[in-house]
Write a structure and sequence with these properties.
alpha+beta, 15 helices, 34 strands, 21% helix
Length: 654
């Protein structure tokens, strides 16, 4: 399936930008991703994208479905541009027969649509030029932006595609469970671009799984999960979000352009890029033309500020990490106290105490931490952390990289993400040793240079996908991954009854038993069981035979998903930071609400094992930390669909 959307990028609204993304994936295999961005601001470049594959004869333009002649193959390119009249244009060129499609939109001074059109030629059947109905009922700039959803290609069964260019019909028979069937009545005869469904029609998105193009003002996105499907195949693991965030903060240390590869395309990553741009860093994602769609190019040579904006920092806890690099580069940093998932108190006291030991003067003013290096430059120090905090270890390690003299961090965090950051800084010229042990030694240098670095695979996503296999009793493989990073996870899965084998050094396979057995879990700092997988394992334990005990020791407010699992029939009793889980024969579908990033993923996994349909609300949490999570599950055979519903009338109530 090729899925191309021209969408508004809310994370870049201040720049007035719009993004073009396209995904290609197949019934089997990993597929790949490419993207470019279309902007109505001269501050950003335009982009291009190319891909070959199979094209279904349906396209969605600005909320209306349009019929295109069927074809069996295409070799398409798309070019995002801005026309002389100010309209934004997306041109699709089908090189097999010189067909093309130009979808454009123009805004007036109030950012409302004033013109929309689709113009082009389709094969030997002739040309078309059709003006789409203005505004589609959109009255305000806000709703205009929310409804700016462009061409969406859908892949149907290949045998249903006709080689007859002049036959613009779609077969209603779609055999793949992952493909969306259009009703036969939805397709008519030429002209070749004919509106089929208007966004103003009263369509129940729960009955018509049309996805994003049916969103209307006031709607909210939910995930429908139909339980009972077996999974099979291989799932590709993305780059580690938590590692990529720290590496992005570390780019401030370098005065030379660099590239970070295997960076997941997530909300948290985009927010961190916004934080970097707010202090003068230039950042852009690869255009995919050279296989670099997962790469971020960073240039922090000309920092212009030491004060990132409060509204962005409060959305992302990891943004506070930049206080160390800013102090090291500029000798001063004004950073608001951070936000993030509501999973308990995560004080920054250890960060600040360490910076003070390195000669920084710290004061808190109106929710902003103001830090200044007393002599203009930090100096080395001996620092003992009362708790092996990952964030504090990373912040202090980055600050020490450009400090005068030697810094020793004792009782440091051991996490793989800490090691990855140390390796990244070392690749830029830093002198760091001992990462991954209790004691890290950093010898400061004058400056750091560029690098070309790959982010490690995401061990939390890997663990989540292994649980997906276990909870559905399905054999799947995951990779790339680092098995050593998953030792505690695979050991617990084996205790539950699953068999874990290595297909290759970086690909693991899970083979679940017919009967899952309960187990006790206690979250600990690495190399203990990770707190970021506690919720997913709790979902698994609800369908394991016997009694299990889950003890959360890292965060004090991370068992709220137990209430949501109980809505699905789980037998869970929570006492303080301990949850007692008694396995049930089956869960039942229900409307549930994600309470944080990992909890939302856990509810999706529970839905896979439940009887009936589960509707998961608050997907914003999941989208912060899992790249294409539902898409990857669909590739394995899960029946999961994003739809829009009117939240005010949804059956879920908190």
């Amino acid at each position: 399936m090729v899925n191309a959307n021209l969408i508004h990028d809310s994370c870049m609204e201040s720049a007035g930008s719009y993004g073009f993304e396209a995904l290609e994936h197949h019934d089997r295999g990993l597929g790949d991703k490419f993207s470019a961005q279309l902007h109505n601001s001269s501050m950003h470049p335009f982009g291009k994208a190319r891909r070959s594959g199979f094209l279904a004869p349906v396209v969605t333009v600005l909320g209306s479905k349009l019929a295109l002649p069927s074809r069996t193959k295409y070799n398409a390119s798309s070019c995002c541009s801005q026309k002389k009249d100010g309209s934004l244009s997306n041109v699709f060129q089908f090189n097999e027969d010189n067909s093309s499609l130009d979808v454009s939109v123009k805004f007036d001074e109030n950012n409302s649509f004033c013109a929309k059109s689709a113009v082009g030629t389709v094969g030997s059947a002739g040309s078309y030029s059709e003006k789409l109905r203005s505004n589609h009922g959109v009255d305000s700039p806000a709703s205009a932006r929310s409804n700016f959803f462009g061409p969406q290609f859908r892949r149907v069964k290949r045998s249903a595609l006709s080689a007859q260019v002049a036959t613009p019909t779609v077969s209603p028979a779609v055999s793949s469970p992952r493909a969306e069937a259009l009703p036969a009545s939805a397709v008519s005869t030429p002209p070749f671009l004919q509106p089929l469904i208007d966004v103003n029609e009263d369509i129940d998105p729960l009955k018509f799984p049309a996805g994003r193009q049916l969103m209307r003002p006031g709607d909210t996105e939910v995930l429908q999960v139909v339980g009972g499907s077996s999974l099979e195949g291989h799932v590709r693991i993305s780059g580690a979000k938590n590692s990529a965030l720290a590496l992005l903060a570390g780019t401030i240390l370098s005065s030379t352009e660099l590239r970070i590869c295997n960076v997941p395309n997530l909300g948290d990553i985009r927010r961190m890029v916004q934080v970097l741009e707010s202090v003068g860093v230039k950042a852009w994602r690869g255009d995919g033309m050279d296989g670099d769609a997962d790469s971020l190019y960073i240039n922090a040579s000309c920092l212009t500020s030491c004060s990132p904006p409060d509204d962005i920092v409060r959305q992302l806890r990891a943004s506070f990490f930049i206080i160390g690099p800013l102090l090291a580069r500029l000798g001063e940093a004004h950073v608001p106290l951070p936000g993030g998932c509501d999973i308990g108190m995560r004080p920054v006291e250890l960060h600040l105490r360490g910076l003070q030991a390195m000669g920084a003067e710290i004061e808190l003013s109106h929710g902003v931490v103001v830090a200044k290096a007393s002599s203009g430059r930090l100096r080395g120090a001996n620092i003992f952390l009362d708790y092996p905090s990952v964030g504090a270890t990373e912040t202090l390690m980055m600050a020490a990289a450009l400090a005068d003299g030697e810094t020793v961090i004792q009782n440091a965090a051991h996490e793989p993400e800490v090691v990855d950051l140390a390796n990244f800084c070392t690749s830029m010229g830093a002198r760091i040793s001992g990462a991954g042990t209790d004691c890290i030694v950093i010898r400061g240098v004058e400056r750091l240079g560029g690098t070309d670095y790959n982010v490690i695979p995401d061990r939390i996503e890997a663990g989540t996908m292994l649980v997906a296999g276990a909870i559905t009793k399905s054999e799947i493989s995951i990779g790339p991954c680092v098995p050593e990073h998953l030792t505690a996870v695979t050991a617990k899965l084996e205790e539950i009854g699953c068999r874990i084998t290595a297909d290759t050094p970086d690909i693991l396979r899970i083979t679940p038993p017919t009967k899952l057995i309960g187990a006790d879990i206690k979250t600990l700092p690495y190399a203990g069981f990770p707190t970021d997988l506690q919720a997913q394992f709790m979902a698994l334990l609800t369908v394991c035979e016997g009694r299990s005990v889950v003890c959360e020791t890292v965060f004090e407010n991370r068992l709220r998903h137990a209430t949501e699992l109980a809505r699905m029939g789980a037998n869970i009793k929570v006492e303080g930071n301990v949850a007692i889980v008694r396995g049930v024969d089956a869960l039942s579908g229900a409307h549930v609400q994600g309470t944080d990033l990992r909890a939302t993923a856990a509810l999706v996994l529970a839905g896979l094992a439940a009887e009936g349909t589960t509707v998961v609300h608050e997907l914003k949490h999941m989208d912060r930390g899992y790249e294409l999570f539902d898409t990857k599950l669909r590739r394995l055979g899960a029946v999961v669909n994003r739809v829009f519903v009117d939240e005010s009338s949804a059956p879920y109530s908190s």
